[in-house]
Amino acid sequence: NKLVRDNILEIIKNNGENPIITILDDVRYKEELEKKLYEEYNEVLESSGNDRIEELADMIEVIKALAKLENKTLEDVIEVLNNKANKRGAFDKNIFLEKVVIDK
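and the corresponding C-alpha cells:
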C-alpha cells in the first residue's frame, strides 16, 4: 500500500505473484511522493555505512521525482544547492549556533 519504483511490478510478477495497482493522478502522486520522502528520511536516520548510502540514494530518487512535478530536474535542484552554498555556505564546518547576542 505504497508508492513503488517502476520495475517493482516486474519483480513481483517474476516471483509468481500478481500485483494489484492504481495509477495515481498528479495530486495523489505528489502526496505519495511526500510520504515516501518521509519514509526514506526515517530509513536514513536508522541506517549507517553502505546502508545509509543506499537510503540517501532513495531520498534523491524521490527528490528527483518531486522536482519533475515542478518541471525541474535534479540538476536544477543541484544548481540551487550550489548557489545557496556559495551565498550561505554548506554544512562542512560542523557549526552549531546556540544563540545570538545583540550588542548594545
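(Above: one complete record from the training split.) The helical segments are 8-14, 26-46, 49-69, 74-88.
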